[in-house]
Inverse folding.
DNA sequence: TGATATGTTTTACT
DNA sequence: CAGTAAAACATATC
């Protein structure tokens, strides 16, 4: 479940359950084709503790003041699970951080598109990746510049991590649905008001999802997320939920209340 | 069985 | 350079 809110919920789980505990070692699961830190890299964490966490876009980091950081990307199907030794361990655990005592932190990744790496410096890493500003922190002007000046489809701009970090397919659809903007609308043809509205919607939606720990069952029933089915009735206007391909992704939307202009 | 999938990267083309 | 499109990655689920 990996866009910005899911990544932040995962980061929060580390912050709440795994800080200031000495790392005893790591356990590996079925790791063929999974991109993980080498044994030498893992050993650099043994005997140390995580004391802080960070997140930028969909990228999660756990580290300490002077040591290296463990960087986690959840890919398409990854998640983090905290448990205690003696509990049933999660399925698809590729790498488990074993803390002294009972505590365990498992990186689950059924589809193996995620990864865990060691990074020396988070800011350098973000810069090297070419990530844009975090979607929760970007201001009006920067958003208008990054997204509103693009000639292509607004959805494609939202998904471009170099323009804006953290928005993925699900929440881009939700924000466009909420603001009544067609996914295929040309970003630079939207009014300044609509662009500003879109930024607020992204931050309101993702902030709310984050506050609910990315538990979709706690989200309002009239959100697109609960009606993301071709042919479903739009809970806002009674139109029909329809799909399009935009930027290679499936864009669920309601053609009755999502428009190119207006 | 085949289609689809919350992401990223690479390559090629316009 | 800006943008588009398609494919690849490995696997699960409907």
């Amino acid at each position: 479940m990996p866009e910005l809110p899911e990544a932040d919920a995962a980061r929060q789980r580390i912050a709440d359950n795994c800080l200031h505990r000495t790392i005893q070692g790591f356990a590996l699961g079925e790791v063929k084709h999974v991109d993980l830190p080498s044994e030498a890299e893992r050993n650099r964490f043994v005997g140390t503790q995580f004391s802080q966490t960070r997140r930028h876009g969909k990228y999660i980091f756990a580290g300490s003041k002077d040591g290296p950081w463990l960087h986690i990307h959840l890919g398409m199907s990854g998640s983090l699970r905290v448990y205690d030794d003696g509990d049933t361990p999660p399925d698809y655990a590729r790498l488990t951080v074993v803390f002294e005592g009972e505590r365990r932190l498992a990186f689950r990744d059924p589809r193996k598109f995620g990864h865990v790496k060691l990074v020396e410096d988070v800011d350098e890493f973000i810069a090297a990746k070419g990530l844009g500003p975090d979607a929760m922190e970007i201001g009006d002007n920067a958003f208008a510049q990054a997204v509103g000046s693009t000639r292509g489809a607004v959805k494609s701009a939202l998904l471009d991590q170099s323009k804006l970090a953290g928005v993925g397919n699900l929440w881009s659809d939700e924000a466009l649905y909420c603001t009544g903007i067609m996914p295929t609308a040309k970003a630079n043809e939207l009014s300044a008001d609509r662009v500003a509205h879109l930024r607020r919607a992204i931050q309101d939606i993702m902030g709310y999802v984050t506050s609910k720990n990315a538990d979709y069952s706690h989200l309002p029933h009239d959100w697109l997320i609960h009606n993301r089915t071709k042919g479903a009735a739009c809970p806002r206007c009674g139109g029909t939920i329809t799909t399009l391909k935009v930027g290679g992704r499936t864009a669920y939307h309601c053609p009755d209340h999502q428009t190119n202009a207006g």
The radius of gyration of chain A is 20 Å.
